[in-house]
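Weekly structure sync, notes
Attendees: PL (lead), two postdocs, one rotation student
Agenda item 3: pending single-chain targets
PL asked that the sequence for the first pending target be pasted directly into the notes so everyone works from the same version. It is reproduced below exactly as submitted, 132 residues in total.
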Amino acid sequence: MAATPGLLSCTTCQSLYQGPICTQPRNCPSAEQLRYWRPHHREITSLCRSALIGCRLCADVWAYFFLEKSPEEYAERPYFMVGSTRHFYDGSGTSYRWKRYESRDGDEAGGDEDLMVLCIGINSRLIEEVDL
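Predicted structure, written out during the meeting:
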């Protein structure tokens, strides 16, 4: 995929804004919230590749979740060290949802208007450990 560096360089992030957006309602019961999550990157390696090609959103998501390694370091060695144990996220990816919040009076958003917030989460914690 050829991409121009920018806010949404990868096709995965571009698709977040295409078509109708399914937004989680403001007061959605916690038991129903899972149905609003959608796949973002299916694997951590895909997120890493997008960050490396210059997708700003993927680079920011990477920096938020993976402080231990830059995308460049992860591409070279696709695991995280915790003590003397290698930890892998293989098979895990990221998900997103659009969440609706009610704006407070006086906000820049325009008083009583609602705000839509993009939430991105990692699908699972460290899922595999291999002792050295």
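Discussion points:
- Confidence is low (pLDDT under 50) at residues 1-5.
- The chain is about 25% helix and 25% strand.
Action: rotation student to compare against the earlier draft before next sync.
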